[in-house]
Write a structure and sequence with these properties.
One of its GO terms (molecular function) is endonuclease activity. This is Endonuclease III domain-containing protein. InterPro entries: DNA_glycosylase (IPR011257), HhH-GPD_domain (IPR003265), HhH_base_excis_C (IPR023170). It comes from Salinisphaera aquimarina. It contains 13 helices and no strands. By secondary structure, the protein is an all-alpha fold. It folds into 2 domains: about 100 residues, Endonuclease Iii, domain 2 (Orthogonal Bundle); about 110 residues, Endonuclease III, domain 1. Helix 2 runs antiparallel to helix 6. The two termini are about 15 Å apart.
Length: about 230
């Protein structure tokens, strides 16, 4: 049974169990597989509180309007109209513009790729409308830095699993998982986040988790509390 902070071995087992169940996830989903990194920045902002299907439509509209570059987005006078399918479009247009301006001012990926992760994260968090989750998605998927995305899905599953108790605190859960996880293996966190999302959507539902079919059930505190005999196979 899981209890308290994860050990490196327990976190690896958690990841591997989910990987066995769902297979390689290979995130982040992008429309241009040849040049995905700037699209990831855009998607990370557009997906805030918005379903991915609507983000996909907004990114397609941006692509139709011109090249998907920071310079082109800054030049679109009608940016809010182009992204209107992705939620509060005026708010998100302002956030996108702030991110694009920072990106251009700092030399784009060519220069930013050399920045230490801590400096990148600090700068991202200082931008208008970029919170912890968006900053870590950008760090992880666009800059390929090891970072744990402690989103609502992660809290739901790790609370039930027994690795989080009490009031939710993004930074504490992120640090707890990164402390147990590999320090230089971005691919591990890339898959871990994608697997957590898959598990939350397919098995560990908000209401009525499907514990009977869950690959984590033999170590999950919530499942063991409901059926204690499962721990011993009795
Ligand atoms: S055993 Fe149930 S509560 Fe635990 S992770 Fe699996 S689906 Fe979620």
């Amino acid at each position: 049974m899981a209890a308290g902070d994860p050990t490196p071995q327990a976190l690896r087992a958690f990841h591997d169990d989910l990987s066995t169940a769902y297979g390689p996830q290979r995130w982040w989903p992008t429309q241009d597989a040849d040049n995905p990194r700037f699209e990831i920045l855009v998607g990370a902002v557009l997906t805030q509180h918005t379903a991915w299907t609507n983000v996909d439509i907004a990114i397609a509209a941006l692509r139709e309007a011109g090249p998907l570059t920071a310079e082109a987005l800054l030049a679109h006078a009608d940016l809010p109209v182009l992204i209107r399918r992705a939620g509060p479009h005026n708010v998100k247009a302002r956030r996108l513009r702030a991110l694009c301006q920072w990106f251009v001012d700092n030399g784009g990926f060519e220069t930013l790729a050399a920045w230490p992760s801590a400096a990148l994260r600090r700068e991202l968090l200082a931008l208008h409308g970029i919170g912890f989750e968006t900053a870590d998605v950008i760090l992880l998927y666009a800059f390929e830095r090891p970072a744990f995305v402690a989103d609502a899905y992660a809290f739901r599953i790790l609370e039930r699993y027994g690795w989080w108790r009490g009031r939710r605190n993004y930074e504490r859960l992120r640090q707890q998982v990164e402390h147990a996880g590999p320090t230089a293996d971005a691919a591990f966190y890339d898959e871990l986040h994608a697997l957590i999302v898959a598990h939350a959507k397919q098995r560990c539902h908000k209401r009525a988790p499907d514990c009977g079919q869950c690959v984590l059930a033999s170590r999950c505190a919530c499942a063991l509390k409901a059926a204690p005999d499962a721990a011993t196979g009795g």
